Amino acid sequence: MAAQKGKQGIILVILFNMVLMGICFGQTDRETIQKNRARALELVDKYTQALDSTVSFIEHYERTGEYRGRFPADHPHYSHHGSKEFRYKPFERGVFKFKENKGDYHHEYAWGYFNTDNKNIPEDKPIYRVWIRTEDFSYFNQINKGRQQSGSATLGKNSRQKIKTPITCYTGPSDLLGYIASDKRVDVILRKARRISVREKTETIRDSECFVIDAHTMYGQYSVWVDPEHGYHAAKIRRSAKEGEYFNRPDRKVPAGSVSTEYLDVLDFKKVDGLWVPVEAKAGSHRTIGSPAYYMDEDKHYKRTKIILNPDHDRLGSFADPIFEDPNNDPELVNGTTVEIGINEKELRYTWKDSKLIDENGTEVDMDDLKELLEAQEKEG
What we know:
Layout: H1 2-52, E1 56-70, E2 86-99, E3 103-113, E4 127-134, E5 138-144, E6 148-149, E7 153-156, H2 173-176, H3 186-191, E8 195-198, E9 203-205, E10 208-217, E11 220-227, E12 233-242, E13 246-247, E14 249-253, E15 259-272, E16 275-288, E17 295-309, H4 313-316, E18 338-343, E19 346-353, E20 356-358, H5 367-380
């Protein structure tokens, strides 16, 4: 009897010790996870500083790439393809200007196989597009195949929106600024991650030992290779989102049966005014539409051929209105260009001639009066 009680006592002690060890191990695991998370967020802070150092610039660029895809025949935007596979191979060069919370400017010349309506465009007669956005106005002009004006130069209020993010659909500059298939920057998304950690071992990316952050977020799974040898910029990013996770912005989700994956590989960095700047990259995406049979692929090679950091945008007129301030901000604003200006929900049409607006009767418009009307409309909101 005593021996039996002794055995029971031993068993109880063993069980107690096992429970105690489990609690201790559980505490240790939690502490390890918390320390790893804190370390990951420290790296995110350094990545933020790197991105913040390059949010104001003027750059000249070259971009080459390819679009491939197949869409359902009843797709609302791509039904003109039927269900046939397509492939575009455009070439581009242009100028991109950006300052967070101030404005963005982008003009490009494109040639090659641009889309189904613009095939085999010669380099000496390229398509042209320019966008300018500030809190006060937006401007757009486009010249298509055969150098025929397609969209009109258009001026109108821009809903006073904050120009914090660049044109997020534009693969290349958006990726280098930290926007990967989202209107929120990668560092912001990482900070709100449900789970975030740093891999134990660094990985070598083009001779640089990089820390690797893994995070599960509302925008999907991210892996970010942070490069301490190049100012803690991202040398590589992978993002994968499945059905139900956010795509581009919180009111859009990856649809049923679909996936969305994106990538960024920085190929070269350059020091500009003492700061490391990514100057060449490959970026792109693979997205399915309901099933793997329907998809859209994009692969781009983006190179900054010249970049100026933190320029005096006001003095240079980086985001100046071509109609009322500086026509040179639209290199293709030439005599004969149709200009549409929105006044009180009406589109007024004019013709550009010698830096003046001419109405349908051939009469020169008083530019000061027109600008006052626009400014009054903006104040009324």
